[in-house]
Design goal:
The chain is an alpha+beta fold and 360 residues long. The chain folds into 2 domains: 199 residues, Glutaredoxin, CATH 3.40.30.10; 151 residues, Jelly Rolls, CATH 2.60.120. Helix content is 19%, strand content 28%. Strands 7, 8, 9, 10, 11, 12, 13, 14, 15 and 16 form a 10-stranded antiparallel beta sheet that branches. Strand 9 and strand 10 form a beta hairpin. The radius of gyration is 22 Å and the shape is elongated.
Length: 360
């Protein structure tokens, strides 16, 4: 399952979850105190004992969390959908910690490099995350919750019962109201009733949903779609790929000597390109060096020209950038108006692995 593709699953699940959790026919507080309790939500905070490691905290258990309202946030550090929810989770953790809320991030990796604890530590620090992180590289907690999405929020009351979940982005006001209600039920006094007011920037800014017409696209053959290079895919072996004369919307192609693996494509030659015809404000690409410590330079074009003011935070106006570690790179953030464009990235040295495109 494409578990972090919000186009096909997470956004639909988010809407369904919100409708089920809070029926629209009754007042908000009544919905949260009665309808939410009846939800048959999977999950048991005792599963936190399956964490391989803990960051920012000693291990937390269901006994140590008794009496606390607990928000569990499933994430993986390359997921742009989760990155756009992070400002709210950070704000709730800080605002309500003195009132009995414990926020726990459960890092369950999608790609193998996300199992590397040093990468998770670097991401946790770089994203300014100070709440506890349970490292779930073996999917123990994920399976216990029967979870399928990044991001996914589960909220437990002071008795450890899962009372609410939210899959995908959005519903921030609803989620914060539920946090407030459960804290009130737990006996919290002088609880602030105003909601957090945020203006996220950079990668954390909300997607431009109105102009978003390109889906998350995996590069590895197990989940790749709309691959348009001439000839057939040659799995797990070097092969020289060529671009077709023209790409249709959301088609993409490799150019040069690449090895396409299950999760990623690795460049073998001294240079190679990826072309993608897309329609979105933002274009992001998960990639990294095949050998840790190696730096691979790249340059990109949009409709054959340097990006200029449309460059992302990991690229300059000329389109130049460097792959230095495995992570998501923001390559384009276009000013309006947004139209169908052709993206072209050229790597000028071998040794890069490319995993996944995402858009916003």
């Amino acid at each position: 399952m494409n578990v972090h593709s919000f186009f096909r699953r997470a956004m639909l699940a988010s809407a369904v979850a919100g409708t089920v959790a809070l029926a629209q026919s009754t007042p908000l507080e009544q919905q949260m105190t009665h309808a939410a309790i009846r939800l048959p939500i999977a999950g048991d905070i005792a599963a936190l004992g399956g964490a391989r490691e803990w960051l920012n905290s000693p291990p937390l258990t269901s006994a140590s969390l008794h009496g606390k309202v607990v928000l569990i946030d499933f994430w993986t550090y390359t997921c742009v959908n989760w990155r756009r929810t992070l400002p709210y989770v950070r704000a709730w953790a800080e605002k309500y910690k003195a009132h009995g809320l414990v926020v726990i991030g459960v890092h369950t990796p999608e790609f193998d490099f996300e199992k590397d604890l040093s990468n998770v530590r670097r991401a946790t620090k770089g994203f300014d995350i100070h709440y506890p992180i349970a490292v779930d590289s073996d999917y123990v907690i994920w399976r216990a919750f029967r979870n399928q999405y990044w991001p996914a929020l589960y909220i437990a009351d002071a008795q450890g019962r899962i009372r609410h979940h939210q899959f995908g982005e959005g519903s921030y006001e609803q989620t914060e109201r539920i946090i407030q209600q459960l804290l009130t039920e737990a006996g919290s006094l002088d609880l602030p009733r105003e909601l957090v007011s945020l203006d996220p920037q950079g990668v954390e800014a909300a997607a431009d949903w109105a102009d978003l017409k390109s889906p998350e696209t995996y590069v590895g053959y197990e989940r790749a779609e709309h691959f348009a290079s001439r000839g057939d895919t040659v799995p797990d072996r070097p092969n020289v790929y060529m671009a077709p004369p023209r790409l249709s919307l959301n088609e993409w192609a490799l150019v040069g000597d690449w090895t396409i693996g299950a999760d990623a494509a690795a460049l073998n030659g001294s240079s190679g390109r990826i072309i993608y015809r897309f329609h979105a404000r933002d274009l992001n690409l998960i990639m990294g060096p095949a050998v840790p410590g190696v730096r691979v330079r790249f340059r990109l074009r949009i409709d054959g020209q340097p990006p200029g003011i449309a460059h992302g935070i990991d690229v300059d106006e000329r389109g130049s950038g460097t792959v230095s570690e495995p992570r998501m790179y923001q390559l384009l953030r276009q000013p309006g108006p947004i139209t169908e464009r052709e993206f072209d990235i050229e790597f000028v040295a071998p040794g890069v692995q490319v995993f996944d495109f995402s858009f916003g």
